[in-house]
Design goal:
Organism: Rhizobium brockwellii
Strand content: 25-35%
Strand order of the largest sheet: 1-2-3-4-5-7-6
Helix content: 25-40%
Domain N-acetyltransferase: 3-166
Largest sheet: 7 strands, mixed
Number of strands: 7
InterPro entries: Acyl_CoA_acyltransferase, GNAT_dom
Radius of gyration: 16 Å
Protein name: N-acetyltransferase family protein
Oligomer: single chain
Length: 185
């Protein structure tokens, strides 16, 4: 399947909302039960890109959105500002075709370039496919929380994975440069 990666835009919100809706209703990556509205997804998008986090779209040769990925704050306390959490969602027809791998690789590059030092993956349902994807991208398992979600009539585990970006924790970061300027106080 041929595709290209580009920055996501507000024009992608309807397709992003559709992909996320399918994931909420049928999957376990998200622990939301009711899919958010398009307006809510637009608000979430604006909040993420407004803080200069990357938000990437995978586009098929026909122009259709096949998936998207973004980085966002793991937590908004100032000491966490060097840590970013990744999120990746794919349309059903795009799964298993290397699109998630490409989105994650691009997200890692962009977050490293921005100055983040660690990336976390919080994998709902402890999805074996998502764990394998992250492991291939250099993530390590750092914790499993059992029975943290209940969805589709079953208890779900949550896997935490992590990988260093750039210099990781080998040097002190510059608090005067992004992302050091996030959540100051």
């Amino acid at each position: 399947m041929s595709f290209l990666l580009r920055d996501a835009t507000q024009a992608d919100i309807p397709a992003i909302a559709d992909i996320y809706r399918e994931s909420v209703l049928n999957g376990v990556a998200s622990y939301e039960i009711v899919p958010p509205s398009e307006a809510e997804m637009a608000q979430r998008f604006s909040a993420i890109v407004g803080q200069q986090y990357p938000y990437i779209a995978a586009i098929g040769t026909d122009g259709a959105l096949l998936g998207y990925a973004y980085a966002s704050a793991f937590r908004t306390r100032p000491a966490y500002r060097w840590l970013v959490e990744d999120s990746i969602y794919l349309a059903p027809q795009a799964r298993g075709r290397g699109i998630g791998k490409a989105l994650l690789a691009e997200l890692i590059i962009r977050c490293t370039t921005l100055g983040f030092r660690q990336m976390a993956a919080v994998i709902g349902g402890a999805s074996p496919a998502s764990i394998a994807l992250h492991r291939k991208a250099g993530f390590e398992e750092v914790g499993l929380m059992k029975g943290t979600g209940y969805k589709h009539g079953r208890w779900l585990d949550t896997m935490f994975m992590q990988r260093a970006l750039g210099e990781g924790m080998s040097t002190d970061p510059d608090p005067s440069a992004y992302p050091g300027t996030l959540f100051s106080g």
